[in-house]
Design a protein that fits this description.
Strand content: 15-25%
Shape: rod-shaped
Oligomer: single chain
Number of strands: 6
Radius of gyration: 26 Å
Length: 160
């Protein structure tokens, strides 16, 4: 005698499968944007560490040795980004924001080839900056750090 399966226990109905697919779609709609935001915030760790390096170079190399933050050549700073940076880094040279060699040179979708507003230096203080794009939209992510090590995100690409 063949093994018979009782009627009604042969598998899932189409409605049950559609409900599961709908639930998975809702979960994905919630999870994917949150994941993208966390990923973008993690990419901002680069700018924080590189600007801390710029701060250390400016305070230990320039100010400690020369008593001033004013430089006449970007090489005097003694700092260069490493790896493959997403940001361009800027320091003031003779009153002009100047790119620190080794940063990003991307022009699209956000042009990082101009300094963020606020990059300046004087004999007793400085503000260095960084500009990058971390989520492939036209908005740039702009950061500044000053001689008192205050780090400011003046244009946040994560929240725009």
């Amino acid at each position: 005698m063949p093994n018979r399966v009782p009627k009604g226990s042969q598998g899932f109905t189409l409605i049950e499968l559609m409900i599961v697919v709908a639930i998975l779609g809702i979960l994905a709609a919630i999870a994917i944007p949150n994941f993208m935001t966390y990923q973008a915030k993690a990419r901002q760790a680069e700018v924080k560490s590189m600007l801390a390096g710029t701060f250390m170079a400016a305070t230990t190399v320039m100010y400690a040795q020369n008593g001033t933050y004013v430089i006449t050549d970007i090489g005097q700073l003694g700092f260069a980004p490493t790896g493959t940076p997403r940001y361009s880094y800027w320091f003031d040279v003779n009153g002009t924001p100047t790119r620190i060699v080794g940063g990003s040179t991307a022009t699209a979708p956000c042009d990082v080839n101009s300094a963020p507003v606020g990059v300046a230096s004087s004999g007793s203080g400085f503000t260095a900056g960084a500009r990058g794009n971390i989520d492939s939209d036209p908005t740039c992510d702009d950061w500044l750090i000053n001689d008192t090590k205050i780090l400011t995100n003046i244009s946040n690409d994560v929240t725009s």
